[in-house]
Design goal:
The protein is of the alpha/beta class. The protein has 12 helices and 11 strands. Bound molecules: flavin mononucleotide. This is Probable nitronate monooxygenase.
Length: about 350
């Protein structure tokens, strides 16, 4: 079974990035360089995930991971989502987008994706938005798969360890994209990744993969020094040649107009860090905690902004290190970060 302490030639994990960035080519490039690439199963059909696993296997024999979203709680306050829908309506009309009706439940096909991971015996499966049920952990172990739980504070790390996972991905407040937090209403633990790693190191006896704001060799070195077994980089790969990041999102990482990032629920109903743009300025104050309902409500608006190459309407997910994102082949990014970390 994959062991984070023994089997990484380079202790750098390529974060799963749903919504386009994590392509099979990106995953294969990170893994074949000696790190561990991750496919993102979130938002995709089971068939699409199968196709992507096959595509990575056609590119490399190296181990890689697959990341799944754990379904959230049922919709608690439908009226609040309807009110948010009404707020989005004028923008939808300007963009010629028909907003979908509010759905009741999450249909991300979690069980079928677990079945697929077991069938394909993927080397590593990580979970976010919730802890994997014990039965799922046992089934994956029986298939020879190492299991990672993504968490965002020390209590969650302890709870994950009790589920019998093999490693913990610990996400600090500096991380780009969705927060793993088990309670999407909770205020984020304000500690930056390195401090969180130090605290978790003392609390759990499992390999720790640290995620959040790690974008330079100095960041990699300092995070490993704090006690992480490996680092997980997302934003630092967003502008990699092999990434499927939308052109407007890539450009925004280097655009002087985007000077800040915030954690917002405006795009998806779950807290996530992105660059501050017009959509966040207009809607963050009214956002409600309701995933995937809000995600589905805004999907047409985001697609229209993407088609128009308009960064002001896209979810520009990015961590605090976004200005250091390099435009280069993923192999070069991973190798350079590791070389610079060793030089430090
Ligand atoms: C565009 C984007 C999409 C992401 N999608 C996922 C995902 O599907 N699953 C997941 O566990 N984490 C996801 N994340 C979070 C990453 O796993 C990781 O925690 C984060 O990128 C680390 O912070 P950094 O972006 O500052 O490197 C995403 C992050 C970004 C930037």
């Amino acid at each position: 079974m994959f062991d984070f302490e023994e089997d990484l030639r380079i202790p750098i994990v390529g974060a799963p990035m749903a919504g386009g960035p994590s392509t099979p080519e990106l995953v294969a490039a990170v893994s074949s360089t000696g790190g561990l690439g991750f496919l993102a199963a979130g938002y995709k059909s089971v068939d699409a995930v199968r196709h992507e696993v096959d595509a990575v296997r056609a590119l490399t024999d190296a181990p890689f991971g697959l990341n799944l979203f754990v379904p959230g709680r049922p919709l608690a306050d439908r009226a609040a989502v309807e009110t948010y829908r009404e707020r989005l309506q004028p923008l939808a009309e300007r963009r010629n987008v028909v907003l979908p009706e509010v759905v009741d439940h999450d249909d991300d096909a979690f069980d079928a994706k677990v079945d697929l991971a077991v069938e394909l015996a993927v080397s590593v499966v990580s979970f976010t938005f919730g802890l994997p049920p014990r039965g799922v952990v046992d089934r994956l172990h029986a298939a020879g798969t190492a299991v990672v739980a993504t968490v965002s504070d020390v209590d969650e790390a302890r709870a994950a360890a009790e589920r019998g996972v093999d490693a913990i991905c610990l996400q600090g407040v500096d991380a780009g994209g969705h927060r793993a937090t088990l309670d999407p209403d909770a205020e984020p633990d304000p500690r930056p990744t390195r401090e969180l790693v130090e605290a978790a190191r003392a609390a759990v006896d499992l390999p720790l993969v640290a995620a959040g704001g790690i974008a330079t060799g100095a960041d990699v070195a300092a995070t490993l020094e704090a006690g992480a077994t490996a680092v997980q980089i997302g934003t630092a790969l967003l502008d990699a040649d092999e990434a499927g990041t939308k052109p407007a999102h890539r450009a925004a990482l280097h655009d002087a107009r985007f000077t800040d990032s915030v954690v917002t629920r405006a795009f998806s109903g779950r807290p996530a860090r992105g660059l501050v743009n017009d959509f966040i300025i207009d809607f963050d104050a009214y956002a409600v905690t309701a995933y995937p309902q809000v995600h589905l409500l805004t999907s047409g608006l985001r697609a229209a902004a993407g088609a128009a190459d308009d960064p002001q309407g896209l979810a520009l997910w990015a961590g605090l290190g976004y200005r250091s994102a390099r435009s280069a082949p993923a192999e070069e990014i991973v190798r350079d970060l590791w070389r610079e970390a060793r030089d430090v």
